Fold this protein.
Amino acid sequence: MQVGTLPNLFTALRALCIPIFVWLLVSEDAVIEAAWLLAALGATDWVDGYLARKLDQGSKFGSIFDPVTDRILFVVAVPLVGIFGGAPRFIVVITLLREFAVIAIAIAYWIKRKEILKVSPAGKTGAFFLFFAFPMFLGGATDVFYAPILMVGAWVLVVPGLIFGYWSVVSDYLRSNSEIS
């Protein structure tokens, strides 16, 4: 199993930033800085996959490590944005329900097929929107002069993010799992 690749290193760096995000938010009360870090983590989600394709360094480890890192980021960040930021509780709950559904489906898929459930285009699109919506909710709850713009942006992005996210669960992931005999 090829582990020591540049794409996997990049994913590892993103994973190592998750505790920094938590520390900024919880220990330092640096909410806007945490929001910017979370936005950077979301904005760079595509980089590891791009590097894997460009450098021909795709690996089975990387195909597991990247989505697991993304799930951890969502499961850690979303509740904290609900606590420290402007994300309403119902948005936090429906986002987390979707994440836990994907985790359960991926585990069931692995148990049945011994294969990794591939991320669907709708799932990637939903994650893209949500990776920007939640930092905007967080930043929108601060007193920075552009907070109202961030809050509007959060609402503009969270709705399609959840629509694409749930669409991927129903149309792609559940269907992939049900096709297993």
User: Anything to note?
Assistant: Helices lie at 6-26, 31-43, 47-54, 60-84, 89-113, 121-140, 147-178.
